[in-house]
Design goal:
Oligomer: single chain
Number of strands: 0
Shape: globular
Strand content: under 5%
Radius of gyration: 18 Å
């Protein structure tokens, strides 16, 4: 019981002290997850890199015009970074990807985007 109460106290204090920096990091993770999902969907369509480049260009243009995602709309750099990493990782993988490979590739592309792509709006 003490352990549970201690855990709840720790969790509530962590939520209270989650500052602006943590919220920005969560927003970046959301943007990169959205970018990775878009990119893996493009990669699944065709192994032809020319068709992928056209689809990527169309997706970036669509994201600029679409306001439904709000703060979680990925930037062009985030989409391109996720695409480059996912393309490198998926080399040699049969298409369409199996469900497990699809999810794994999204996770890898989102992680690389979060870690290696600079913020579009630095402050």
């Amino acid at each position: 019981m003490r352990c549970l109460i201690g855990f709840m106290g720790l969790l509530s204090s962590a939520m209270v002290f989650a500052g602006e920096a943590q919220l920005k990091q969560w927003e970046k993770m959301d943007r990169c997850s959205n970018a990775a999902f878009i990119v893996v969907s493009i990669l699944e369509e065709s192994p032809d890199t020319f068709k992928q480049a056209l689809a990527l260009h169309g997706a970036i243009g669509g994201l600029k015009n679409n306001t439904k995602l709000g703060e979680t709309t990925p930037s062009e750099g985030e989409v391109t970074g996720a695409y480059n990493m996912a393309l490198r990782i998926s080399a040699g993988m049969p298409r369409p990807f199996a469900k497990r490979d699809h999810d794994w590739l999204i996770a890898q592309a989102a992680t690389s985007c979060t870690l290696w792509v600079p913020d579009a709006k630095p402050e």
